[in-house]
Structure formats: structure tokens, C-alpha cells
Model the fold of this input.
Amino acid sequence: MWLRVFACASFAVVFGAIVWMFVSTPRPRGVVNVTPAPDVAKPEVTHPPIAAASTPEPLATPVPAPTPIRPTPLPVIPSTPVPVPILAATPAPVMSIPTAVIASWQQPEGPEIAADFVRKWAALSPQAAGKWLAAQPDSPARHAAAEALAVDWSAKDLSAATEWAVALPEDGILKSVVMERLADSWAEKDPVRGAGAYARVSDVEIRKLAAGALFDAWGKRDPGGMYSALPKIPAVLANEARMHLAPVLFPRNATAAMNILCEVKDASQRVDAVAQLFDYWRRRNRSAASAWLSQSALSEQERQRISGGQ
Done:
């Protein structure tokens, strides 16, 4: 029995080995001839040639040029006139000045307010400011404003400022105040011409005050030049010129100063002026003063009055 079992087992082992060998041995496969597909030519993309820039061919039917569109002119609408401000270049009437401005002139600082107001106005139109100021009532504020106007105006046009001053009404001291203010400018620029302008003032007292300021400023600035220009001064102001020049010239040349006073046409003014300066001279140099008096062109009566009988 055991032999049968052993024989069956051996047979099974041998049979399994044969099967395994058969299965595990690689078998040759058939060769498949793969013919490569022929190259398919890609379609060639062609573009039309780019032609060089050229003048386009004219159209069969010419197109007319467009007609330019012209804007329709707008109607002119008249504008409403803008009110002229207070400081306009045209003369402003009295009613255009605010009441508050005039009222402020009555305050303690009124002169300063008035001067600043007129100075700003004069920067635009000194003629308008001067015309308006001349019509205002006399007051300290008006004087301050007039002086400010004279200074600013004379710096631009001295002749025009003087013409305005000469034309001012002679019913107060404003005219003399303004003309005295202009005297320094004339003494510096053209004193002879200034004297000619001042000679046109009709009021004697105002003319004397104004011309006196001019001659004082001129004599202090250039006494020698004033002495040489005495023949050019208008006759109506000649006496004033001599009486204002003599005291300034006296420290430099006492004899010339005394001789100038002897040429004063008015006898009363002449004696008074010579006597005043002679007394001053005699207190400092009695012999020189007496020697000049004895040889002067004065009459004996005038010499007695001047010396006091001494």
C-alpha cells in the first residue's frame, strides 16, 4: 500500500514539474511589420505680399471735400455797467465818498485816516483826489490829506502838483500849507522855475508864506547859487528872496548880506531888515558894522534909524 502511495506522489511531482517548465518557458511571438505612415505635407500658409505704401488709386467718382462748418456768431449781449469804485482813475463826485469815511475824519486820528485815504486815491488819479479835496470844508484832516497828496503827487509830477496848489481856493490856509510843502522839491530841482510858479499866487500873504518857504530851503541848500540867481527871480518876489537870503549868507559874507538888504524896494521893509541884521552884527563886531553903515548907500535918515543915533 505504501508503495502505491509513494508512486502516486512521485508521479504528481514529476507531472507538476513538467507543467511548470512548459508554462515558464518564453514562447517567440510573431513579428508584426509596421509600415511607417507616409509624411503628410502640411499645407503651406501663404500671405499676400505686403505692398509698399503708395498713393491710393482715385475713386471712379470723386468725393467732394467736406464743407467747413463755420460757427454761428453769438449775439452780443450788452453788459451791465460796473459801478466805478471810489478810487477810480476818473474824478469821483462828492456823493461817491462813503459817509463813514468823512465821519471818521472827525475822530482824534482823523488826520491820519484822511491822509491814508487820499494817498491811496492819488495813486490812481491825483487829479481826481485833488479836485475832490479842494471842495471839502477846512479842517485839520483836510490839511493832512492835502499835504500827503502834495508829497506823493510832486514825486511824480511836480509841475502838475504845483498847478493844483496854485488853483486852490484862497479862503483858508490850505493853499499856503500845500505850497510850503512843495517848496523843498522846487528848491532841489528848479528853484527859479518854482519861484515863477509861486509868483502867480494872487493873495499877498499866501504868496509871501509860500515863497518864504521856497527861499529858505533854497538859501540853506545853495546860498551862492541863490545869490547869483537873484536877477532871475520875479520882481513880485524879489524883496522876499533878498530878506530870506541875507541871514543865510551873513556868516559867509556879512558885507554882501547887508548890501543885499539895501536893495529891498520897500523902504519900510528895507530899514527893518537892515536894522535887525545890523544890530546882530554890531554886538559881535562893532567896528566892522559901523564902518559898513557909514559907507552904505542908505540915506542919512535911514542910517540914524538903523543905528539908533549911536
